[in-house]
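Appendix B. One record, verbatim.
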Amino acid sequence: MPRISKKRKKALEQIQPKKLYTLPEAVELLKKISYARFDESVDLSVRLGVDPRKSDQMVRGSVKLPHGVGKTVRVLVLCTPDKEEEARKAGADYVGLDEYIEKIKQGWTDVDVIICTPNVMGKVGALGRILGPRGLMPNPKTGTVTTDVAKAVEDTKGGKVDFKVDKAGIIHSSIGRISFEKDKIVENAREFLGTVVKLKPSSAKGTYLRSVTLSSTMSPGIPLDVNSLNV
């Protein structure tokens, strides 16, 4: 059996077995049991009542969190020359087209988000095998394929989070940092969950939000009372 550290054991002991916590209770407890020496990410895991194998039940989207995620996001904009200045002024870290496409083909993916304009998708589409597995492929559904590159860059830098349900029907996402004030984590979580609820596929039957768990990078998960979320 894997050995449980003293700190993790102490954290586990503070989570009541079989109890489902309200969101404010869970955030308060999370801040108490997080023991790492760095500013941990605060994460949500949302189990949905969907079948991701069916295209009409694929849940995917983006949300701009009111208080951001607490980290610097590196943005690459792939566009034609007429959009380059707009992207730079908005704060993009890297801007260009052919030179970056070649860099990516050679293995460079040192960015967090890639935004592109529709007229270059023919070239960007060829990078699908490289960008897809890394979650970097631009997509109109997440607002990363757009003619308004300035807004896309500003939203991404300002706390926009992209999410997608995985093969097990679960969405995992960071919603902030453990150093955030309790109310800011709660507000970010509500905004995220509210967006997920709005994206419920019409073909999904039965319970949609099956379970929601709050955790930090190193902490155990804290199960939430879904019925108390009011989202």
